[in-house]
């Protein structure tokens, strides 16, 4: 009899909590996913990691810029091209577009606030050692392509545009174009 009472109690408790175990299905909005890209009729495709990259310039002491034209150490970066077909294009060249500083080959810093560095800009240098203009239409040296993946090395460095460099944030932004022939 005692067993029957315990079994009955267990059955009642199971039925009482069964509603919690079978809660109604709820659907809520989870967010938005953006898919971005391009279909290009070109000799290669730009690797997605090269499209929106950040070059870490690091910290450079103001003492490194004793006079106008002094330069920091160069920082390497690459633009990677995928699926290249030399039957379509044999060479590649790049142009950069950004706000210029005191010369067409000096990229101006983005910030103009009190916390921004002053009298300094950025040079972008191609693989042949030439400072690239940041006018968007002057392309650097051509690089011969190979079939498949191509990694194009570039460098960037700070350059003083005045006799006295003021410390602060030293960030800049440039877009690039790719020319195939």
Topology:
Elements: H1 2-21, E1 45-46, H2 48-51, E2 75-84, E3 91-97, E4 120-125, E5 143-144, E6 148-160, E7 175-180
Antiparallel strand pairs: 1-2, 2-6, 3-5, 3-7, 4-6
Would you kindly provide a written description of the structure presented here, covering whatever features stand out?
The relative contact order is 0.23. The chain is flat. It starts with a helix and ends with a strand. The strands form two sheets. It has a four-stranded antiparallel sheet. The protein has two helices and seven strands. The protein is an alpha+beta fold and 181 residues long. The mean pLDDT is 89. Keywords: Fimbrium, Signal. Residues 34-181 form the Fimbrial-type adhesion domain. Residues 1-23 form the signal peptide. One of its GO terms (cellular component) is pilus.
Low-pLDDT segments, ≥5 res? none
> Which H/E pattern describes the elements?
HEHEEEEEE
Query: In what order do the strands lie side by side in the largest sheet?
Result: 1-2-6-4
Q: In this structure, how is the largest beta sheet organized?
A: 4 strands, antiparallel
Structural class, by secondary structure, is: alpha+beta
- Tell me the strand percentage band: 25-35%
Backbone CA Rg: 29 Å
Helical residues, percent: 10-25%
Instruction: Identify the overall geometry.
Output: flat
> How many DSSP-defined strands?
7
Number of helices: 2
How far is the N terminus from the C terminus?
94 Å
Average pLDDT confidence is: 89
């Amino acid at each position: 009899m005692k067993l029957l009472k315990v079994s009955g109690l267990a059955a009642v408790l199971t039925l009482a909590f069964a509603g919690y175990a079978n809660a109604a299905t709820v659907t809520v909005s989870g967010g938005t996913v953006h898919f971005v890209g391009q279909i290009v009729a070109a000799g290669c495709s730009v690797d997605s990691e090269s499209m929106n990259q950040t070059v870490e310039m690091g910290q450079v002491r103001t003492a490194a810029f004793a006079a106008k034209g002094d330069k920091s150490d160069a920082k390497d970066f690459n633009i990677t091209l995928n699926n290249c077909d030399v039957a379509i294009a044999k060479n590649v060249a790049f142009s950069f577009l950004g706000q210029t500083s005191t010369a067409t080959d000096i990229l101006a810093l983005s910030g103009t606030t009190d916390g921004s560095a002053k009298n300094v800009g950025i040079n972008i240098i191609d693989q042949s050692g030439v400072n690239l203009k940041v006018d968007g239409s002057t392309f650097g040296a051509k690089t011969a392509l190979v079939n498949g993946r191509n990694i194009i090395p570039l460098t960037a460095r700070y350059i003083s545009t005045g006799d006295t460099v003021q410390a602060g944030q030293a960030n800049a932004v440039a877009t690039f174009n790719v020319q195939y022939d």
